[in-house]
Amino acid sequence: MTQTSGTIEDPANRLPELERRRTLKMASSTHAYVRGNTQDFYRWLAASGLADTVPQGPPVWICGDCHLGNLGPLAGADGRVDIQIRDLDQTVIGNPAHDLIRLGLSLATAARGADLPGVTTARMIEQMMEGYEVALTGDGTDPLANEPDVVKAVRRRALGRRWKHLAQERLDDTLPTIPLGKKFWPLFAAERRALDELFERDDVRAMIVRLGHREGDERVRLIDAAYWVKGCSSLGTLRYAALVGVGGSRKQPASLALVDLKEAVATVAPVAPGWDLPQDHARRVVAGARTLSPNLGDRMLATSVLGKPVVMRELMPQDLKIEIGQFSRKEAMASARYLAHVVGKAHGRQMDEATRDQWRGVLQRQRGGALDAPGWLWRAVVDLMAAHEIGYLEHCRRYALAQEG
Hints:
Layout: H1 11-26, H2 30-35, H3 38-47, E1 60-62, E2 71-75, E3 81-85, E4 92-94, H4 96-113, H5 118-137, H6 149-159, H7 163-171, E5 184-185, H8 189-198, H9 202-210, E6 220-228, E7 239-246, E8 255-263, H10 281-292, H11 294-297, E9 300-305, E10 308-315, H12 329-348, H13 353-365, E11 367-368, E12 371-374, H14 375-404
Antiparallel strand pairs: 1-4, 2-3, 5-6, 6-7, 7-8, 8-10, 9-10, 11-12
């Protein structure tokens, strides 16, 4: 691997540079700011007094950070592609209402970014609740029948993707190397040794071989690895990309795999009273993923690197985000309904029929007058929108002053 210019080879300089990039990314838009400050979301929710009005739903595994960027197509170990929750860093056994508030806030922020009128935001929250409640009925309703165009488009793109598309997108090339530069930084010596040892482990080899219908006796070799500058809230934690050869020889492996290794950090989402979660954060993330997003959870492994809990997963070409930019009023409402159905399905599969009926009844009893959505949800979204707007502008002011200094 070639070395990059600059000072990021020095361990003392990596964290400041990551923080600078995180600050810049969060200043790019209100929606980016909302996505990158989960901790402030729960702090503001608690400080607002609204937490006392939020109904306590049945304790289930929740995403904990249920925004638009965390939903999208995911390939399962068997090759099936479904729209599921993509990121479970904050997953806990908690109150499902928190996922609804987080999703509602994300939808409202996206609508604002698309210059849609406030009445459309209100209707989006209505459609969101309808989609969620339909999922709780467990009546076998097929959400694909009402799949919005933005989701259809990303699903079609996902189904047509192969390894070369993943390599070109993530690595900017199809050569069996990880190009160092803006996205990928060189490893420190201790990191390289730790990853070399990790990929010699039987459980790691078995996970990689199991995916893609590879042969069980094929050898797994670490070809290249780098520190991955990726995400927003995760910037500053351990994040590695590993290029792995499976079978064949080192120079000509039978197939290649791109593996994402991400440090699992403590959750800020509130845990339901009386529930104990795995103390190892990587095991917590994998447990939540296997429940909420089987396509993702079934190809994850809880491990450790340099003494820190890390979640490992092989990236698949079909794994994509649903990017909602300038969408129309009709598309906004259809997307809100559909994505909430995905979340409702993830919550509902953990409940028996009686519990689903009871939770749906709680949601339906708390409608707010002419607005066909729970009043507590609407108030939470509106108040948090205001708090995040203030927080975003203050963040931009601090960033601008720092740039001038």
